[in-house]
Amino acid sequence: MNTKNYQYPSVLTIAGFDGSGGAGIQADIKTISALGCYATSALTALPVQNTQGVRAVYPIPYRVVEEQIETILDDIFPNAIKIGMVHTGELVYTITDTLARYPDVPVVFDPVMVATSGDTLIEDKTIATIVERLFPLAAVITPNMDEAAILAEMPVRTLDNMHYAGEKIRKLGCRSILLKGGHLDSQRLTSLYFDTQGNVHEFSFDKLETNNTHGSGCTLSSAIASYIALGDSFLEAVVKGQEYVHQAILHGCDVLAGKGNGPLNHFFNPQQLTKYGLA
């Protein structure tokens, strides 16, 4: 019988489904795997969608979500957790009540609140529950400019707006925030990371002219969780996560996959599954 001397760094993703493979739990699993971690998952909803949009959403019973999370935590305990869209207050309570028993696991939360069309996806009371329950639980939250505008209750269109909005959101109880600047009207896109000490770090990338960005937010939050699982600090994980997403978009710019907004190339430079020695 072979002796088991090693373990994989694992990341649990709690998110919705995307049958087209570009976003949601599929993008999360691809990202976590491409970065050398072991992916586990708990499904929160079953959207029927492709690269052109969402046709319907079928919810997963809350008790089933709870059982999925508990079953994974009982067996393959994660080094980090990524949470995607939570569309109801009841789902927020289900997730936070379950994870509250494991306060030492770093959580990366992608607060998906606004569709590409600009429509708000969740109700105000759900947003309030997210702020009250999920924000204190999360090590890093990753809102885009539209989501930051909702959370800060102000327009967020410029870099100056982002600085001000980030400070307002930080006071809502977040430990750290990566405010993504992908919607800035400029050829140079800037994101801001407000760290646990209140410092602000600025990151800029050249804008890539492509519509193959479906799932970029899911991918970024999963990449940050993966780097945390691999032992990086929150700041290091944020830096590496952004670079990974930039390269994944760059290497997928010239690919036709679907008739709408295409996916990233998650496997532009896949890493071997990492193993580390058991204590």
UniProtKB/TrEMBL annotation:
This protein's GO CC annotations: cytosol
Keyword Nucleotide-binding attributed: yes
Alphabetized UniProt keyword annotations: ATP-binding, Kinase, Nucleotide-binding, Transferase
Pathway: Cofactor biosynthesis; thiamine diphosphate biosynthesis
InterPro entries, per the entry: HMP/HMP-P_kinase_dom, PM/HMP-P_kinase-1, Ribokinase-like
Ranges where the Pyridoxamine kinase/Phosphomethylpyrimidine kinase domain occurs: 18-264
Signal peptide region: none
GO biological process terms, semicolon-separated: thiamine biosynthetic process
The EC number(s) this enzyme carries: 2.7.1.49
SUPFAM superfamilies assigned to the protein according to its UniProt record, in alphabetical order: Ribokinase-like
Alphabetized GO MF terms: ATP binding; hydroxymethylpyrimidine kinase activity; phosphomethylpyrimidine kinase activity
PANTHER family, A to Z: HYDROXYMETHYLPYRIMIDINE_PHOSPHOMETHYLPYRIMIDINE KINASE THI20-RELATED, PHOSPHOMETHYLPYRIMIDINE KINASE
UniProt-recorded name of the protein: hydroxymethylpyrimidine kinase
